[in-house]
Write a structure and sequence with these properties.
This protein is α/β, with parallel strands linked by helices. The protein has one domain: Ribokinase (UDP-N-acetylmuramoyl-L-alanine:D-glutamate ligase), CATH 3.40.1190.20. 36% of the residues lie in helices and 25% in strands. The strands form 2 sheets. It has a 9-stranded mixed β-sheet, with helices on both faces. Strands 3-2-6-7 form a 4-stranded mixed β-sheet. α1 runs parallel beside α8 and α6 crosses α7. The longest helix is centred in the C-terminal third of the chain and has 18 residues. The radius of gyration is 17 Å and the shape is globular. The mean pLDDT is 94. It binds adenosine monophosphate. The site of adenosine monophosphate (AMP) has 18 residues, from β2, α1 and α8.
C-alpha cells in the first residue's frame, strides 16, 4: 500500500503553564508524516511560505518522507498559537493565521495520485473533495479534524464524512460535532454518516475504536510529565496509518496493533516541545513501548 498525507506544515507558538516556545515547527501534516515515517515512506502534501526553513524539508526527506508535493509559495507559513492549562487535555487556540494555506488547493503530483491510503489531516473540509478527486484508486480514506473546522465548517465536515472510511477525532471534537455527550452514541452517529471505523482519542485516557460490529480500547502510556501535548493526535494517526500501510492485510488484529503503534508514537511526542522528541526517537524505542502497552492491558 502507499500512504498520502495532506495536512498543515506550520509554525506554532505554544504556551504551557511552565514554558513558552515561539514559532517552532509544527502542523498536522508534519507530525503525522514524521510519525508514519517509522513504519513506511509517506507522501506529504502541503504548502509553506518562503519563511519556512529548507533544512526542515531536507530533514523530512532524510526520514524517508516524500516531499514532491510540499509546495513553497510567496508569503508566510500557516501559523497557530495554543495555550495549555495544568490539564494537558484542555487547550485554547489563541490565534490561527492561515496565510499561504488560505488560497491553496493541493494539486497532487502524478506519483501521489496512485496512493492507496489517503489521510486528510486537519485541513479545510472544503478541500477534501478536490483532493480525493485527484487520487485514482484509494482503498482507505482517513480524516482527522480540529475544533476550528468543527465550529466553522460543520456542514462540510458531515459531507466529507460520507467519503471517509476511518475518522479520527478527540473526545471534545466528536461531542461538538455530533452534539452527543456520550462517546458511544457520538461514535454511532458518525458511523451512520459513512465511516466504518471511528477512533476517539481521549488524551491521557487512551483511545476508543468503534466499528459497526467491533469495539476496542487502549490506555495511554502512563506519563509523569507531559511537556507539550501538541501533535499527539496527528502522531497517533501517523503511527496508526503508517503501521496500517505496512501491514499485509486489514483485519481486527491489524487495527488493534495499529492503535497501539499510534499510541506508542504519540506517547513520545508529548515528552518534549514540538517535533523535538520525534527527531531523536528510534524504532527500537517504539518497539519497546509497544511491548510495554501489551503488558499494560494484558490480564
Ligand atoms: P494536534 O495537537 O495533534 O491536534 O495538532 C496540532 C497541530 O495542528 C499544530 O501543530 C497546528 O499547527 C495544527 N493546526 C492547528 N489548527 C489548525 C487548522 N485550523 N488547520 C490546520 N492545522 C491546524
Amino acid at each position: 500500500m502507499s500512504l498520502l498525507i495532506v495536512g498543515s506544515i506550520a509554525f506554532d507558538t505554544i504556551e504551557t503553564p511552565y514554558e513558552r516556545r515561539e514559532r517552532i515547527v509544527g502542523g498536522s501534516g508534519t507530525y503525522c508524516a514524521l510519525a508514519a515515517s517509522f513504519f513506511t515512506r509517506p507522501m506529504l502534501s502541503g504548502v509553506v511560505g518562503e519563511d519556512f526553513p529548507r533544512e526542515i524539508i531536507a530533514f523530512f526527506q532524510n526520514r524517508g518522507i516524500q516531499t514532491e508535493g510540499v509546495l513553497i509559495r510567496p508569503g508566510k507559513t500557516f501559523f497557530w498559537e495554543g495555550k495549555y492549562g495544568y490539564d494537558p487535555n484542555q487547550r485554547e487556540t489563541l490565534r490561527t493565521e492561515l496565510n499561504v494555506m488560505a488560497e491553496f488547493i493541493p494539486s497532487l503530483p502524478e506519483s501521489y495520485q496512485q496512493a492507496t491510503i489517503v489521510y486528510l489531516a486537519t485541513i479545510d473540509p472544503d478541500w477534501h473533495e478536490a483532493i480525493l478527486n485527484q487520487v485514482k484508486r484509494p482503498k482507505i480514506v482517513a480524516m482527522d479534524t480540529i475544533q476550528f473546522w468543527v465550529t466553522h465548517k460543520t456542514e462540510s465536515l458531515w459531507q466529507s464524512l460520507k467519503k471517509v472510511n476511518i475518522f479520527f477525532a478527540n473526545d471534545e471534537e466528536i461531542r461538538l460535532l455530533t452534539r452527543e455527550v456520550n462517546l458511544v452514541r457520538a461514535g454511532k452517529k458518525v458511523l451512520e454518516a459513512g465511516p466504518s471505523l471511528v477512533i476517539v482519542k481521549k488524551g491521557e485516557h487512551g483511545a476508543l475504536v468503534f466499528g459497526r460490529d467491533f469495539i476496542f480500547g487502549t490506555l495511554a502510556h502512563p506519563c509523569e510529565e507531559v511537556v507539550d501535548p501538541t501533535g499527539a493526535g496527528d502522531s497517533f494517526a501517523g503511527g496508526f496509518l503508517g503501521y496500517f500501510d505496512r501491514a499485509k492485510k486489514i483485519s481486527p488484529r491489524t487495527i488493534k496493533k495499529a492503535v497501539v503503534a499510534g499510541s506508542a508514537v504519540a506517547s513520545f511526542v508529548i515528552e518534549d516541545f514540538g517535533i523535538d522528541r520525534l527527531r531523536r526517537l528510534t524504532p527500537e524505542e517504539i518497539r519497546q513501548r509497544m511491548r510495554f502497552f501489551h503488558h499494560l492491558v494484558s490480564f
